Amino acid sequence: MSPYSVFTSYARRDAAGKPFSKFIAELKDRVQRKTGRDLASVCFVDGTGIKIGDDWTATLAEGVCTAEVIVCLMSPNYLNSVWCGRELSVFRQRIQEMRKTLPATTRLPAFIFPIVWEVLPGRSLPKVLASFQYSEDAFPPAYSEKGLRQLAQLPRLRTAFLEFLEFLSDRIRDSLEDRHRLAPHPRHAAGWQLRDWERLESAFVDTKRPYDVEVLSLVPGGPASIADARSQDLHEVVGQVAELLRVPARVSELVPTSLGAALHQNSQDRLTSVVILSASDPEFRGKLELLNAVGSTEFGLIVIDSLNDPTHRSLTLSRQISTLPARSLERALQEGRATSCAADELPCELERLFVLVRNRQMHNDKPAAAVDAATTAHATAEGVPTVQRPELTGPGGSATP
C-alpha cells in the first residue's frame, strides 16, 4: 500500500489564505473517516512547493510517485504551472503502465480528480484534464458557477461547500477501496533527481493560447547535445525560465525543412517563437539561411556557441548575418531579437527574449475590423463609398466606436 492516499496538486499562489487550508482539513477528515486510514498519510500536501534552485526532496518524490489518487485544483495559476503539469504527467504515466498489465476491457476506478478551484471563463482545458469528469449533477450548482475556493471562503456558501466535500470524499473512497490499485511509478525505486523531474513534459503542453512561448530547436542530436559541463538540458532550462516568468512554454524539436511552416503557424496562433541553433552544427550556415528566408514573421534567435565568451568568440553573429540578403535576420539583429551565447548563458538569453518577443507581439496585435463583406461589395458596385468604423476589441488595443 502506498504511504499516501491522496496527492494534492495545486499552484502555490492558490494555497494562500484560509480557503485552501479549510479545504485540505475538511477533505482529510472525511477521507479518514470513510476509509479508516491513518490521518497523517491520508492526504499529501507539499507544504513548501518547488522553487527554482530548490533540491528535489525525497518526500515530494514519494508523494507524486506513490499516492493512489491525485486531486488537481484547477485555476488559471494551476494551468500556468509547469510543475503542476509534470505532477499530472507522472500520474498519467503510472496509469498507462498499469493498463499494460490488464485486459483492454478492464474498467479502472478514477485516479485523477480535477476540481475547479477558481473558475476559468473562456479558458479551454488541456485535453488530459478535459477528458476527466470534473462537474457532475450531484455537485451543488454554486460549485460550477463560482469554483470551490469561493465555496470555502463565503459563509453563505458553507452548505454547498460541505455538500461538495461529501460527494468528492465518497468518490475518493470508492477509488481507494477498489481492487485495482495504482502501482508506484516504475522508476521510483531507483530514486528521482531534480534533473529527472525537469525532463518530464508538462501534461498541459497541448493547450496553446495567444502569447504562449514555443522554443523551436534545430540542434542535431536533440536538446541535450547543446549542453556542456556548465549547463543543463534545454527542456530543463526552458521549464525553469517559464516557471520564473509564469509563462507557459514548450520545446519542439524540428528538422530544418519544417522550420518555416512552424514559424508561420505560430504566427497565426499568436505564439511567441524562439529558435535555437548550434554554432558547432556542420549545417549551421544552411539553417541560418533558411531562417533568414521566413519573411516578416517575428521570432527570437539564440545561437549556442560553446566558445562564445569575452576572451574567445568563435562566432560573431552580426558578421554571419551581414553576408546574407537583407531579410528577416538583419531586422531581428537590429531589434535585439537575435543573439549568440555560451550554453551556460542560455537561461538569461531565453528570459530576455521571452519578454522581448512577447511584448512586441502584444504591442503589434491590433483590433480586427468588423466588416460585412457582402454589403461593402454591393455598395461599391453601386458607387456608394464605405468606411470601416466598428472594430472588435483585440489583445493589443481597445475597440473603436
Low-confidence stretches: 48-55, 309-313
For the record, the CATH class of the largest domain is Alpha Beta
Helix coverage percent:
40-55%
Let me know the average pLDDT.
80
CATH superfamily of the largest domain: Toll/interleukin-1 receptor homology (TIR) domain
Order of strands in the sheet with the most strands? 6-5-7-8-9
Q: Give the termini distance in whole angstroms.
A: 64 Å
Q: What is the number of E strands?
A: 9
CATH topology name of the largest domain, in short, is: Rossmann fold
Order of helices and strands: EHHEHEHHEHHHHHEHEHEHEHHEHH
Describe it for me?
The chain is of the alpha/beta class and about 400 residues long. The protein has 3 domains: about 5-190, Toll/interleukin-1 receptor homology (TIR) domain (Rossmann fold), CATH 3.40.50; about 210-365, Rossmann fold, CATH 3.40.50.2300; about 370-400, no CATH class. Helices cover about 40% and strands about 10% of the residues. The protein is built from 17 helices and 9 strands. The strands form 2 sheets. The chain has a 5-stranded parallel β-sheet, sandwiched between helices. Helix 11 links the parallel strand 5 and strand 6 (about 250-255). Helix 1 packs across helix 9 and helix 11 (about 235-245) crosses helix 16. The longest helix is centred in the first third of the chain and has 19 residues, at about 80-100. The chain is globular and about 75 Å long. The chain starts with 5 loop residues before the first strand and ends in a 20-residue tail after the last helix. The model is unreliable at about 50-55 and about 310-315 (pLDDT under 50).
